[in-house]
Amino acid sequence: MFDLIDECGSDLKRYGYSVKPLEKYDMSVAYLKIDSLYKSQKLGLDRGEYYIFNAPNLYQQNFNAHTFLIENITDKINLLIKNLGIKKGCKTLLVCLGNPDIDADKLGKCVFDYYEIQPLNKNNNIYKFCPNIFFSTGIATFDMVKMLVKGLKIEFVVIIDALTTSSLSRLGTSFQITTNGLTPGSGVNRFGKKIDRRSVGAKCISIGVPFMIFASSLTQNSQDEIILSPKDIKENVESAGYIIAKALDEVLK
Questions:
Q1: CA distances, 203 to each of 18, 120, 251 (Å)
Q2: CA 204, 170, 102, 1: dihedral to nearest 10 degrees?
Q3: pTM of the model
Q4: Superfamily of domain 5-252
Q5: Which residues, in sequence order, are bridge partners of residue 157?
Q6: Is the pLDDT of residue 181 over 90?
Q7: What pLDDT is recorded for position 155?
Q8: What is the mean pLDDT of residues 37-48?
Q9: What is the DSSP-derived secondary structure letter of residue 134?
Q10: pLDDT digits (tens, 9 = 90+) for 220-249
Q11: How far apart are CA 98 and CA 243, in angstroms?
């Protein structure tokens, strides 16, 4: 199973995949639009728009690099929102997934903590939700999100979660944004119901960063069930969470 679209094993260029270098910090942005059933079936990916920002030296660079990445992520999220026809100021729910007790899986919790809302403001239209994992709550994330969307009359859902990758160099350095929602636990082969426009009744985008890698990606002697993460991951997850939260703040404020 793959989370990052350009690790699907196919030659994506023949389907319109492109990579554009950004002007600073050795960063680039890749884009793919899956706009037909043919493409979807060939690639094993749902229809939608996909952006991946690659920032290979992000954690060795200064705060200016982080700001530069925030600005570029903001621009692409704004473009996706425009393409989806989402109105400014609509009721929005941030769904911050993962296990807050595991550093490699707490990206959602970091975004939840960094993103500030104004719950006492009667005009507040942004809500955030950090549901933890099924094994801690006994309630499927999908069911909780669907109830909130219905009860709060949510029009736009943003799902944030940690992903898996097959490449050590991409741990924490690839930021993927898509318009087709997200399946909780898909990266670790624990499949829940997919959260997307069709299933919950609200337009969705998902944002993910890989912080886990299967041991089988490193050696043929390992089993797929073993998932690894860097030992110094905590600060990187915090930084990635901050970057996503600041980008969303620029988009939604």
A1: 25, 26, 15
A2: 60
A3: 0.91
A4: HybD-like (3.40.50.1450)
A5: 93, 204
A6: no
A7: 97
A8: 89
A9: H
A10: 555 555 566 666 688 999 999 999 999 999
A11: 17
Q: Rg of the chain's alpha carbons, rounded to an integer? A: 17
| Residue 116 φ then ψ, to 5° | -100, 135
**What are 139's two structure tokens?**
């309630």
Angle formed by the axes of helices 233-252 and 63-84, nearest 10°: 50
Contact 96, 112 (CB under 8 A): yes
Give me the amino acid identity at 77: I
Q: Quick check: helix, strand or coil at residue 232?
A: coil
Structure tokens belonging to residue 64: 């200016």
| Residue whose entry in the numeric block shows the structure tokens 């009667």 | 122
Residues 104 and 237: beta-carbon distance below 8 Å: yes
> What are the tens digits of pLDDT across the range 91-116?
999 999 988 888 889 999 999 999 99
Q: CA-CA distance, 114 to 102, in Å (whole number)?
A: 18
CA distance 125 to 54: 31
Structure tokens at 103: 């550093």
State the sign of the Cα–Cα–Cα–Cα dihedral 83, 89, 91, 93: positive
